[in-house]
Structures are given as C-alpha cells and as structure tokens.
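Hi there, hope your week has been kind to you so far. Would you mind checking whether the tokens look sensible for this chain? I owe you a coffee for this, so here goes:
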Amino acid sequence: MAQVDAADRRAHSPGFHESQDLLAVVALDGTLKSVNASWKRVLGYEFNELVGRALSRLVDDQDRSRVIRLLNPRLVASDPAPVEIALRHKDRSYRIFTWERRKRAGEEAMFILGKDITQKKMMETTGSLRLHDLKAQAEKMRRQEESTEDPTRKPR
C-alpha cells in the first residue's frame, strides 16, 4: 500500500493539474485513481465521473484490447511504444490519443499520459480523402476524354 501512496503523492505534484495533456494514475486493474484537470477540458467529464471508474468505460469495444496492452505492467518495459486509443467525450464523440505509461517496480498503479492527436488524424484522413477524390476525378476526366469523339477528326 505504501507504493500506491507514493504514486498518489506524485499525482498531486505541481504541474500535474497544469499539464495540457491528459495525465492519470491508474490502478493495474484499470481503475482511474486520479486525473488532472485536462480530462474535464478535453473530454468534458467532472473529476467524480472518472475517479474510481474503469478507463475501459470510455473506450469503444474495438479499442478495449489496446487498453489492456496500455495497462499491462509486463509490457511497460518490453514494449514501451505509445499506444493509440480513442476515448469517448461526454458529448458521445471520440477523441484520439497517443498514450504513454510509466510504472515503477513494486507499485500497484502507473502513470499514463495521453496526447490528443484528433486534429492530426482528421487532417491525415481529410488529406487522404482529398487525394483519393482528385485521383478519381482525374480518372473520370480521362474516361470522358476517351469516350468523346473529336468532331474535327475524320473517320477512317
């Protein structure tokens, strides 16, 4: 229990609530123990709507396995790569985050840090769709040109 208390003390350090990123202390069973003020600003939830509840409740079914990967203490050291998970906003829309995690040996909780990449993902998707639309439009124009006879051309 002393180790959990140490994680909780770190959560109340200066800067924890000042960060623009989502910061939280999460028990290894996935229960949010502490969240910073950015959770309300970014996702719209009050502190008491989150603390004591499972992080997985904010996740779409298809991302639940990613939450398990994020919170698996064995993977923190062996697979430290960020994990991309979308969380449900209070208005029922979703925001996409890249999540990093830190766990100290012997602790029964870990820190997670989520960076909002929703706008970046939307721009990538929009750019990809625009490119797709441009290619489709060019192909359509090419086909129209091929099917349209040139009135100045004499038949052979």
Observations:
- The mean pLDDT is 80.
